[in-house]
Amino acid sequence: MATTVQRCPWCGEDPLYTQYHDEEWGKQVKDDKTLFEFLILESAQAGLSWITILRRRDGYRKLFADFDVEKVAQFTSEDIDRIVLDPAIIRHKGKIEAAVSNANIFIMIQREFGSFYNYLYQFLPNQQPILNNIKTMKDVAPESDESKLIAKDLKKRGVKFFGSTICYAYMQAVGMVNDHLINCDFRD
């Protein structure tokens, strides 16, 4: 008799989505390269579904210098014009321009705090990930006090396409908050 795997229902049956759910979502990320990757991806997701971005992740990786923040920060208007023509990503010029601008802000934050990770975790209680006890999907909040504070601070610094709801999705993606349902096999 086969045992069934319990997952959060939002990922459905799509293999790309279930792999993301099982291997990445809610798992704590400490390295700034991955934190930058998700900053680009979550900002691109604004107004779209996450699966749309996941399906284009390799395109983003290729066009955004394997998420090398120093290289992205140096992108020129010619680079942006070239990228916006590539169907491998979401071709929204404003979001692409924001990714370059956000890369420069990301670097400034790294210099100020030693790492982007250090910056982010100053907003969390005891500088530790938040483990929520979620029973059903309707119990998952679209934002939190922490996501509001981070988004407000980042906006003040000039970060674009990163409001409190996108910030909360980012926090879930990089394991700053764990919103796996309590009966999910991938909770810890």
Key terms:
single chain, 10 helices, 2 strands, 52% helix
3D architecture notes:
This protein is mainly α and 188 residues long. 52% of the residues lie in helices and 2% in strands. The chain contains ten helices and two strands. It has a two-stranded parallel sheet. Helix 2 packs antiparallel against helix 7 and helix 2 crosses helix 10. The two termini are 25 Å apart.
Draw up the topology in text.
Layout: H1 15-23, H2 32-45, H3 50-54, H4 57-63, H5 69-73, H6 77-83, H7 93-113, H8 116-121, E1 130-131, H9 145-157, H10 164-173, E2 177-178
Parallel strand pairs: 1-2
Helix pairs in contact: 2-7, 2-10, 9-10
What's this entry about, in short?
By secondary structure, the chain is mainly alpha-helical. It is 52% helix and 2% strand.
Q: Name the average pLDDT.
A: 96
Low-confidence stretches: none
Silhouette:
globular
Number of strands: 2
State Rg: 17 Å
Oligomer: single chain
The helicity comes to: 40-55%
With strands numbered from the N-terminus, the spatial order across the biggest sheet is 1-2
Largest sheet: 2 strands, parallel
End-to-end C-alpha gap = 25 Å
Query: Strand content of the residues, in percent?
Result: under 5%
Overall structural class, as computed from helix and strand content, comes to mainly alpha
**DSSP summary: helix tally:** 10
